[in-house]
Amino acid sequence: MAAARKVLALGLGLILVPGLPGPAQAQPAPPPVIAPQALAQAQALAVDAAKALAPPQARIVAEPGRLDPRLTLAPCDRVEAYLPAGVPAWGPTRVGLRCVQGRVHWRVFVPLTVRVWAPGVVSGTALPAGAQITAAQLRTGAVDWSLAGGAFADPAQLEGRVLVRPLTAGEALRPGDLQARQWFAAGDMVQVVAGGDGFSISTEAQAMSRGIEGQEVRVRTESGRVVVGRAVGDHRVALAL
Q1: Which of 56, 115, 143, 226 is the most exposed place for a label (fewest CB within 10 A)?
Q2: Which residue segments constitute the domains of the chain, with CATH numbers given?
Q3: What's residue 50's pLDDT?
Q4: Residues facing 193 on adjacent strands
């Protein structure tokens, strides 16, 4: 085999020297270089945005990701961080960085993952799917509120709820782990509420279908008009204005 490799190498005009590597392999391009101060500024901005929604005693961590290695950034004397409109404050998000003092005024988005660690409800024991929860089965532990729709702060919120998947001991309970509640039946009278900037309205209506938690439902008002809302509580429907 060694002889065959030597013959092949000579035929290709290569010289193989024992102990030295063969032809150089193409290396992936390194990510663009961002000044540590600018990256720290982006992380601090993400943490501040998360604080507005975080529960008390939360420990917030912003983990930076990698920029696109195809980017080339010109040197910059002053970089400014900003939050793009509409980006989430928790979980996978991004913070903008723009060069405001330099030869070239560039703009990039730094990917970040924001973790929000705070006390939350966890299972005190392994629970099967279909189990009806009691407060005695729950305890409080450190939970990442940024995952899968958040978490719960009070075990009393979960009393009597039904699990749709099994949980291991110590696992956090998430809204998606729970069976949706039925707030009312078809034909029931419900309270329809709507609100906006500085106003609110409320009227009675008859449900035309079951009111499943968080799902849309059609109701008929006293005037005979059919409107669509969302089941939000015991015999309560919220209209989106």
Answers
A1: 56
A2: 36-116 (no CATH), 117-177 (3.90.1210.10), 182-238 (2.30.30.760)
A3: 94
A4: 202, 238
